[in-house]
User: Fold this.
Amino acid sequence: MIPVLTHVAAVVVAATPTPTPVPSVNPNDVTPGPVGFAAIALVALVAVFLIIDMVRRIRRVNYRAQIAEQLDAEQAAAAAEADDTAQRPLEGRPGRATLDPGRRPSDGNPPHGDVD
Assistant:
């Protein structure tokens, strides 16, 4: 009995036609046309120019960061060398006299304000 019902159901389903949708809108009215193409092309060109500008700005920032890093390294090296030369005693260096911090090198007298 079940096979008979299945067969009847298949015949009924096959006998009823499936409706095909009828377009209610003219397909030429819903296409983008030349105006839509121009709008999309304009958006694409603006996007390309923005990407190029962004890459240029990022590159410029990277170059500035590299130069700032180099300048910082040069200043640190100069400061380290200045500290190194200040730490070395003046004795033993040719052409330099040993200086007493409390005396002026020109006349050997105490600095102004020192009274003996």
